[in-house]
Design a protein that fits this description.
Layout lengths: L3 H9 L4 E4 L5 E5 L2 E6 L4 E5 L2 H10 L4 E5 L2 E8 L5 H15 L2 H10 L16 H9 L5 H5 L3 H5 L6 H12 L1
Antiparallel strand pairs: 1-2, 2-3, 3-4, 4-6, 5-6
Helix pairs in contact: 1-3, 4-5
Organism: Cellulosimicrobium protaetiae
Protein name: Helix-hairpin-helix domain-containing protein
Pfam families: YjbR
């Protein structure tokens, strides 16, 4: 079982995601395009491509199609029927389906980023931090310097050790 908090963390870890909470629902957008909504009845509705909708429906018997008229928008599944890892996966797939191509391509490229290969970021921060920073478009120590520690720690994969190494490298 997953929660709104898990969906929120997964969504907000993705670049340029915004959250809105109109009329009891919680909506996540990327550059103004909705990709996930958690309804008042604890169903996460995901804007997905046709192939992903088919996979989600096949994997989760309680999932249902989300349509507007005859147009397929995506699929919805009760939060209680998803575990955290599944929620992370499907929220990311929905984000990729709705994000602008260049932004999605940058995130996918960051998935393969290796320590020491991104701008002037130090290799010592490790693979998870390197990928998280690259995925957020943070590729230089000057990018890091413009952010506070809380902003860096909010990125999934960046921990206190990585922040300390980044600060030392930026000041050194």
């Amino acid at each position: 079982m997953t929660t709104l908090s898990q969906v929120r963390a997964a969504a907000l870890a993705l670049p340029e995601t915004a959250e809105d909470a109109p009329a009891g629902t919680v909506t996540f957008t990327v550059r103004g395009r909705r990709f996930a909504t958690v309804t008042r009845t604890a169903v996460v509705q995901l804007r997905l491509g046709d192939d992903d909708v088919a996979r989600l429906l096949a994997e989760h018997p309680t999932a249902s199609r989300v349509t507007r008229g005859d147009h397929l928008l995506g699929a919805g599944v009760p939060l209680a029927d998803l575990d955290g890892q599944q929620a992370n996966h499907w929220v990311r797939r929905a984000w990729l389906a709705r994000a602008p191509r260049r932004l999605a391509a940058a995130l996918l490229a960051a998935d393969g980023a290796e320590p020491g290969s991104v701008g002037d970021l130090p290799a010592a921060i490790g693979r998870p931090a390197t990928r998280a920073l690259a995925g957020a478009g943070i590729t230089t120590l000057s990018d890091v310097a413009r952010l506070g520690d809380a902003d860096l720690l909010a990125l999934h994969g960046v921990g206190p050790r990585a922040v300390r190494i980044l600060r030392d490298a930026a000041n050194g």
